[in-house]
Write a structure and sequence with these properties.
With 190 residues, the protein is mainly α. Helix content is 82%, strand content 0%. The protein has a single domain, classed as de novo design (two linked rop proteins) (Up-down Bundle). The termini are far apart.
Length: 190
Amino acid sequence: MPIAGALLLGLLVILALYVIVIYNRLVGLKHDIAKAWSNIDVLLKQRHDELPKLVETCKQYMKHERETLEKVMQARARVSSARESSDVAALGAAETGLRQGLMNLFAVAEAYPELKADESFRNLEARITGLENAIADRREFYNDVVNSNNVRLEQFPDIIIARLFAFKPAELLVFSAEEIGDVDVKALFG
């Protein structure tokens, strides 16, 4: 019987180690999601800080385009609210509105050669465009990590450990069909 007891003890140790490995992987994924969200949050905050500067620069030249400028600032406020509350679904919708507002703003700016020549405007346009590209990259990474997490939470035997320790699936950062579709350049300049 000592051999059977040792064998049973060995199996229990292996099972405990297996549970620990699965648990640690799930914890790692949970923290990867938080880190990915934090990276997006930093970029959104940077862009949030740049937009008022852009609008102020544009106001000096675009006296008749108040509505375009106001739409950008309203969209900025919606993104900020969603970002601060970590509401992934609301952020997707707000981002769509902000991107459309920025596209319209940059398209309207084409009609103002003095504005396009302004060094401050050019620098802000380049900075915001760079931030937009970085946000898109981080958004992709975030969704990859969320997908990995959600798949693990549904796989066997991970699902048992996930339910036992109350791991929850995360929400993908999804954008509207308008945002991911091609831009109608004619409509912007028409």
